[in-house]
């Protein structure tokens, strides 16, 4: 017998925080919406840090990734943990889709499956070309450089002809350790913002609009970005749901970040399938949809068994 139906995963900073500021409160509230929704489905759930060494992961039916926001800073440890825990229980989303989504090369897979992404150039590890040589090769005057495995805008730089020399050393150091991606700077993200559409169990539930602070291009709140309620168009909803369908397998939850590219086409910025903020506090019913999806999945798996 399993002791739990679902373990909601966070990281140890948010298990029993001593100081609760606005940011921490949002984390706790978001996870609590999920916990209550699961319990309303008759499921036994609790919340733990993913790196909790005292817990026997084989005692839960499912493990749900939510606020594991330190995984990319501890990737080797996290990767080993994934290997181990995926043998003991069912991960949501799965280890397969997590490993696919961690690396931005997944954008190429989406493109091959008919989902529009902006112009993107993948610079593989140990490339010897300089940034200037690459900018000439791809005809780029202003572009964004970022790692293929990243989070929270880690090593994300806006580069142009005036500052490119400043970043040559940084790029030279990074490319020896990891693959990078170069994309033309997208002006509409600054002018209009980036839309995040939440998709639970394959169906759109709600959306927000993220806007960068004045003078910046990064929409993350870590860099002063702001979040606003947003009513997407039918085209945007269809685009988001189709992006989820194009994944290597159907995720139980997804956040589809989209924008209008420099050519006026709707494009994927990121497809977040690991631990995205889902803004349940803006639309609590989405947590109910997630919980229903998990309950349905559980029922299907029990029928198979």
Explain this structure.
Strand 3, helix 2 and strand 4 form a beta-alpha-beta unit. It is globular, with a radius of gyration of 20 Å. It contains 9 helices and 13 strands. It has 3 domains: 4-93 and 283-304, Response regulator (Rossmann fold, 3-Layer(aba) Sandwich); 106-117 and 188-273, ATP-grasp fold, B domain (D-amino Acid Aminotransferase, Chain A, domain 1); 121-185, Dna Ligase, domain 1, CATH 3.30.1490. The two termini are 14 Å apart. It has a 5-stranded antiparallel sheet with strand order 11-10-9-12-13. Strands 2-1-3-4 form a 4-stranded parallel sheet, with helices on one face. It has helices spanning 22-40, 75-85, 95-102, 106-112, 131-138, 164-175, 187-191, 234-245, 285-304; strands at 4-10, 45-49, 60-67, 90-92, 121-123, 142-147, 157-160, 180-184, 194-200, 203-211, 226-229, 253-260, 266-272. The chain is of the alpha+beta class. 33% of the residues lie in helices and 25% in strands.
């Amino acid at each position: 017998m399993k002791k739990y139906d679902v373990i909601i995963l966070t990281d140890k900073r948010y298990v029993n925080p001593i100081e609760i500021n606005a940011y921490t409160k949002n984390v706790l509230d978001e996870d609590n919406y999920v916990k209550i929704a699961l319990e309303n489905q008759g499921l036994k759930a609790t919340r733990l840090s993913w790196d909790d060494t005292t817990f026997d992961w084989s005692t839960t039916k499912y493990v749900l990734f939510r606020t594991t926001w330190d995984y990319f800073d501890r990737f080797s440890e996290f990767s080993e943990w994934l290997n181990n825990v995926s043998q003991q229980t069912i991960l949501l989303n799965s280890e397969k889709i997590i490993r696919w989504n961690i690396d931005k090369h997944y954008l190429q897979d989406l493109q091959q499956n008919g989902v529009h992404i902006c112009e993107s150039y993948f610079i593989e590890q140990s490339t010897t070309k300089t940034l200037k040589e690459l900018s000439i090769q791809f005809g780029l005057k202003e572009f964004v450089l970022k790692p293929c495995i990243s989070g929270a805008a880690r090593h994300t730089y806006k580069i142009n002809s005036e500052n490119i020399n400043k970043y040559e050393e940084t790029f030279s150091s990074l490319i020896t350790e990891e693959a990078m991606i170069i994309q033309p700077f997208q002006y509409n993200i600054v002018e209009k913002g980036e839309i995040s559409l939440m998709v639970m169990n394959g169906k759109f539930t709600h959306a927000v609009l993220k806007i960068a602070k004045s003078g910046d291009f990064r929409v993350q709140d870590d860099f002063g970005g702001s979040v606003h309620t947003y009513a997407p168009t039918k085209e945007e909803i269809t685009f988001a749901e189709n992006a989820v369908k194009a994944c290597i397998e159907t995720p139980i939850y997804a956040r589809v970040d989209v924008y209008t590219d420099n050519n006026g086409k709707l494009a994927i910025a990121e497809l977040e399938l690991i631990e995205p903020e889902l803004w349940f506090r803006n639309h609590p019913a989405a947590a109910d949809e997630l919980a229903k999806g998990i309950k349905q999945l559980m029922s299907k798996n029990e029928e198979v068994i």
